[in-house]
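Suppose you are handed a protein chain with no further information: no name, no annotation, nothing but its sequence. What can you learn? This example shows the usual starting point.
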Amino acid sequence: MTKAEFVDKLAENGQTTKKHASEAIDLVFSTIADALVAGQEISVPGFGKFSIVVRKARSGINPRTKEKIKIKEAKAPKFSPAKALKESIK
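A reasonable first move is to predict its three-dimensional structure. Written in structure tokens, the prediction is:
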């Protein structure tokens, strides 16, 4: 589903305009991103949890040159689905 399709579905189900639905979606995702940047977790009961994980520094191999390289520590966003969401998909 694309964002445009998501906006259409939200507007239809929420009985609102596409403009308001698009603004709501943008606001939700920007709020999640801002919280993650601030180091906070976002937990939505029945849906899941957004958090930040730290990937440790490690060594790797450049596939082209087969040379060993060092990969720096990095932060990455993570989503863990709630049990209810997992079960609804089965």
